[in-house]
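My main concern about presentation is that the manuscript never shows what a single data entry looks like. Each protein is reduced to its one-letter sequence and a matching series of backbone shape codes. For the editor and my fellow referees, an illustration may be useful. For illustration, here is how one protein appears when written out as sequence plus structure tokens:
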Amino acid sequence: MKRVVLFLMFLLIAFPDFSNVYANPYLASTTDKSHWDDLRGSNSYTMTSGRRLAYDIYSDKYTSDGYGIVTDNFGKGDQKYLKFFGWAVNFGRQTHTATNHETFIVVRKMQGDNNLNKTIVYSTKNGSQDATEDLEYNNQGPGVWNECSATTLNKDNLSCNMRYVDVNFVSYLPLKDLFPDPTEDAVWNVYIAKRVGSWYVYSPLKTPFSFADRNYNGGRISFNSGLQTEGYLSTQDYPVIRRTYPRQTAKDAPSKYFTVDKPYKMIDKDESDTTIWYGLRSPEDDNAKRWGNSVYFGVAGDNATIRFDAPEPPPDIPDKPDEPDGTCKAPVLPKDRYKYELDLVAQTIDAKVVEANKSTSTKVTYRRLNYSANRQKAKDAIQSDIDKRKTLRTSQQTKLKSEKADYAQQEKEYDAADKAGDETKAKAVVAEMKITLQNIANLECSIDALTVEINHYEKEKDTIEAKELATQSITTPTQLKFGEDTVLSTKSITLEESDIKTISYTWTLTEDGEVTGVINPEGATFSGIAEKRMTNNTITTEVLTATKETAAMCAPLGQTSQLDGLVRSVNDRTNGVTNYTESVTTQILMNSKDLVKKAGYGFNYEIESVYENQDPEATATGAKIVRSYFPVLSNYLPYVKNSRTYGKINLSGYEIGLLPSNSTLWTLPNSYLEAYSGNVFDSMNSTHSKRNPEDTMISGGTKFYIPFSYPNQTLTFDSIALNAGVNRMNTCVTGDVEVTGSVLNDPEGNDDFYTRALSPGKPFPSGIGWNFNNSGALSTINGDLKKWYSNYSYNNTTNKSPVVHSYTLTPNTIKQIQEYNATRPLYKPGQSIFDTVNIPRK
């Protein structure tokens, strides 16, 4: 066994050297370059959209720490290349064969001194590894379960499984193309694009791994994705099984699933096959490790970048001038020691989510850095040089005056010696005069040089102060851009040093994308002074349209229906990206006594829809409309049957709009009932044609009344809360009420109404009610029924009438009626005498 393991390790080490097999990175065709960005995709799209781009960049499958810098020759001589490995598919688009697909790595320059927004498309070459088994739904082992036909397009793998052949790749990015200038700090955004047939989809490249930097050309290369929460992943599909080991078949795996959109900590990974499998800490399994395929998980964070940080240039320290020593030297005039500094910064961009094709406002904060301390330090050094030279010049001028006085005295001494004929004395005085004359010449030369130097330094200081004055306040254009080229708005801004100002741009958002704030877009100079750097003049953040998402299903009673959405993204150059989100949680609040009801009775419930928003500037509110749908309706309410579709949810039935009782609770409208008939209306003063003015109307409260005719079975109703928050999210809940014990002819004998025999002689002991006024029923009772009653034979043995009289429905009387009716039914078995009349409520 050990020899087998060693052999496999040798294969893993030897196999990845694709340098002589894989494509020349210069071979992206004209067609591919034109179409690589036809459709923006990501791993969050559905498989049926054709935009589900699934991929991984390996962290250590073929090379240590994800990528390397190698030397290779692809027809343009030996060059350095950034080399990395991965796999990619257009998940669900169509079957990937060995020849119908290709992967591209695209880079776009985002920071640097020149060629900003330059885009280069590089080809990769497919390897020989398949992802069919890894991406197969309900994998049962060898073979493809429920395989799609070869011509199938845009199918979810729940419907059928496609083959994904030769989908791994290697990428070579020529560093000479990306970073030709070893002194330039530059950043390229990295994208991945996939062609299957003639169908192209692309996405910003992201990876959950952090890669180490590499040395290059005296500087550092980094290749990373900006992670918001390092190592945390969230599943974007359902159902995704929590497997106990990588690539466990569905039939062997437990029927337990990862929770959608819940973050799981990555604690392990498996790159032994094509797709990466993540080992995640599962709170649902007591924090045990559970495995999931990367294709079902989303990676948070920013677009991956390739960055080159150039080596720091040697400091430009001006030569220190020689201190004058009083001898006659040429003036020391060094170059200016201070290069004037000016820098503008795009500091923060703040983008909000709005509905597509609606006006939005994006705020960008700009600042001007303060270099006054650097200038003051330079001015102090210059002033020190000026002061030293002025002090020395004063000293030299004093010495010159003394030397000239000595010379005048020597002239007198010489005249006296000449007059006295003292040759020796005259020679001695002449020797002293030569020395004095030379000293005078040296002092005059030194004073002149000091004066020139003083003038030079005073001019250097004046130049700094003149530039300070000229750039005390500068005005420059700013722009808000959407995507790479579209300029949405241009506004001017005026800044002094240390100023921080925010500009709000109003524009119309049509689709998801990236929005960028730019200051000094043309790189203009100010009074001849260029900015210290331009790399910090832009700042970008993602901007999204409202999702208008609907929950995938209606949550049952006791559970909540919840949706979340991004409402605002703030990218700050210092603090990074901050995303503010919103959420809406909806549930049914229902008393347990209302879960089981008889037909004809009402039950009460409330819909609680709670909206939360992390954005401190938020003004959005929760659900705007709440509707309930019932399969049946009591007479005589005005609600009509409707069938509506919300996302993937189809709701139908009698539609009732609920009313808000406070910011989170919604209730049914009040119902009103006739005391005798039990008919239900929507108003105390209803003018409905079936309203009996003789019957008393009472308030039935905020309840739904089950029709009398409803059988013993479950009554299910659905409620949907609409248009919550910025993203107009729709949540849905469903409730069940068990209807048991019918009003009439209950099999268990628990009727609410009872039939009784009556005496024609005095059928209504308490008097005739309004329902018999002006009715022919009374004449029928006093006619045919009375005759029948009078002629009916009596039981002479017991001397009892066959009729039991009952005037008050006491429990004992009801028992007697039931016993009597058991032997003398007034109706056929199974058919109620009340079937054709309106029955009053109990």
User: Anything to note?
Assistant: The mean pLDDT is 85.
